[in-house]
Amino acid sequence: MRISDDEMEDDFQSKREEVRDRSLVAVKRFSCDELYLNESDDSDSDTALDESYLMDEVGLVEGALVELTHEHQLGVKEEIRSLISILETQLMSENEQSSSALARVEKYRDVRREIDRKLDTQYQRKIAEALDNHLTAVQRDHELKSQIEERKIRSDAAYEEAKRKERALQEEKLLQERAKAEAEMQAKLRAEEAKRAALEAEKRAAKEAAEKEATEKPKGTTGGASEDGGSGRQVDGSSVVLGSQSKGSGYNGTKKLQSAGSVIRAAESALNIEQIRLQKLIECEEKNQSLTSSSNQDFSSYERHISRLIKQIKGTKDNVRTKASELIKIFNNPLCPQSISIAAFAKKVVSLGKSPNNAAFACGYVIVLVTSQVPQVIDLLLGEFNRACIYTVPKHIEYSQSAFESKEAYYKAIGYQEENGEIESLEDYLRRLESYMRLYAALIQTEIQGVHNAHGLKEGWTWLARFLNALPANIFTAVALNAFLQMAGFALFNKYKSQFRKILNVISDNFLNAMEARDGSKLNLVIKGIQSYIEDKKFLEEPEGRTLQASLLSRIMVPDSDYQEYYGGYQY
After folding, report:
1. Residue 556 carries which DSSP code?
2. Which is nearest to 464 in space by CA: 406, 494, 424, 504?
3. Separation between Cα atoms, residue 275 and residue 439, nearest integer Å
4. From start to end of 120-159, where are the E strands?
5. pLDDT means per 10 residues in the chain (572 residues)?
6. Nearest CA to 545 among 312, 378, 365?
7. Quick one: DSSP state of residue 412?
8. CA distance 277 to 385
9. Is 58 exposed, middle or buried (0-12, 13-18, 19+ CB in 10 A)?
10. d(CA 338, CA 306)
11. Which of 377, 387, 320 is nearest to 552 (CA)?
12. What span, in angstroms and rounded, lies between the C-alpha atoms of 433 and 483?
């Protein structure tokens, strides 16, 4: 606490005025009784008396005033000293408090500095550790990537080498199989020629003997008709045999092969090719089973992917191109053996035959594109076709009690399926048979510019010739023939022209006549279908779906470079 000089001066003046007021009051209280004023007294005496008296009175007042002033000064000084002492005490206390507070502030500042220093040290340590961990992780990643790249390079090199060796082995095996098959075919052909020559010699000998015997008999006896009264017609290298016909005799242009009491109607060459295909299919299945059992890898995901792609086939150019491209990539995937993916493809494609609403023409395009890049697919695919439907061979099995324990066993042999312990109905079987034949015929008639169809129109013509030469006329063969003509007749006519018309004449004159000799409402429907196809010249009309639709998707989905790479720029 501090008092200024002005305040002290003001206080002093107030004290002084207070003392003066008190003095004046005291003076007023002085008694004047002793004074006697007489107007009759002389003025001089009165004046002298008054002055002395006043002087005495003034001296007392001044003395009292001086005394009071002195006392007041002493009191003020005492108060000032007291105030100064109090102020000094307060000042010392405040100084002590300020010093204590300043000391605390200094101490707090030192503590904060120490804490900040420790925190900075800890933070820098964490930063250094994090940086070190990051650099270590980056270095580890680089090392891992380097190792992966090295493994990939080694794996690619090993895969290419293995693929090259496998390709060489497959080509060598294929050449050996072809040479073996050709040798067997040549041997069989020579055997057939020898049998035919022997048969002709026997016939000539029998004929000569019969003529000789006839000349020796009486004139009333007549000779028998020749057994080979039919005529033959050569069509594109495949003989279409027209057997002798009589009303109700049936269609006799067939070739019977006795086997274990059963009668198989088929061309021997077709049976030989079927046997080769089935043998390849069995070998592939055994190989795949061995690969699956010896490998810890699950290949079912690739099979599901192939099945999904096949089910997604639609009748558009972009869809066909995209699905074929993806399937070829799967076949060339080093993580899945090619034999497994090819077998899955063949099985899934043929399984489409179970559905009558399959996109047969579009599927034919995909098959041709795939087999042009992976040729070994075609034999397995045809083997699956032959196993699923015997009329794709073509062949027919006739029922014989000595060959089959029951009718059910016979039905299973010709392709009937069993579900819940019961054989499917005739309608279901014919529906599946027709679907299989439509898919098979769609493959045969598929033509893509710049792409070779390994099983094209030539094989279709051969199938038709073998079918008419060897198979009997019944409900099964009629449904198969009708489905084949509906799908492949247009393409066959465009290629063979008048020769195909001759084939249709053979069907009309012989096959349909043999069918009409049989009874049955279902048979009549099929007969009318074939007759309508021939008489209305439906082979001049392109089947619906044969030409793929324009692109419904953007070409950005599948780059043209990939398209050219896989298919060599073909046109639909």
Report:
1. G
2. 504
3. 21
4. none
5. 55 62 48 44 51 62 87 91 92 91 92 92 92 91 88 85 83 76 68 62 60 53 33 39 35 42 82 94 92 84 93 92 95 92 95 78 95 94 95 93 87 90 91 95 95 95 95 95 96 95 94 84 87 95 90 43 41 50
6. 365
7. H
8. 10
9. exposed
10. 12
11. 320
12. 9
Determine the Cα–Cα distance for residues 271 and 266; give it in Å rounded to an integer. Answer: 7
Q: How many Å apart are CA 94 and CA 88, to the nearest integer?
A: 10
| Contact criterion met (CB below 8 Å) for 433 and 476 | yes
CA 72 from chain centre, in angstroms, equals 114
Joined together, the tokens standing for residue 59 give 């001296």
CB-based contact 395:270 (threshold 8 Å): yes
Q: Count CA within 13 A, CB hemisphere, residue 233.
A: 16
CA-CA distance, 227 to 243, in Å (whole number)?
10
Of 378, 387, 413, 367, the C-alpha closest to 274 is 387
Cα 302–308–311 angle (5° rounding)?
145
Closest CA to 241 of 494, 510, 18: 510
Distance CA 263, CA 399 (A): 7
In degrees, rounded to 5, the angle at the alpha carbon of residue 510 between the alpha carbons of residues 507 and 514 is 115
Pairing of strands 256-259, 262-266: antiparallel
DSSP 551: P
- Quick check: pTM over 0.90? no
Long-range contact set of residues 250-259: C-beta below 8 Å, sequence gap at least 24: 250/472, 250/473, 250/514, 250/517, 251/472, 251/473, 251/510, 251/511, 251/513, 251/514, 251/515, 252/514, 253/468, 253/469, 253/470, 253/510, 254/469, 254/470, 254/471, 254/472, 255/469, 255/470
364 vs 381: CA distance, rounded Å: 12
* Residue burial 345-361, b: 16+ Cβ < 10 Å; e: rest: bbbbbbebbeeeebbbb
Residue 406: phi and psi, rounded to 5, are: -155, 175
Question: Cβ(433)–Cβ(484) under 8 Å?
Answer: no
Residues present in the chain in total: 572
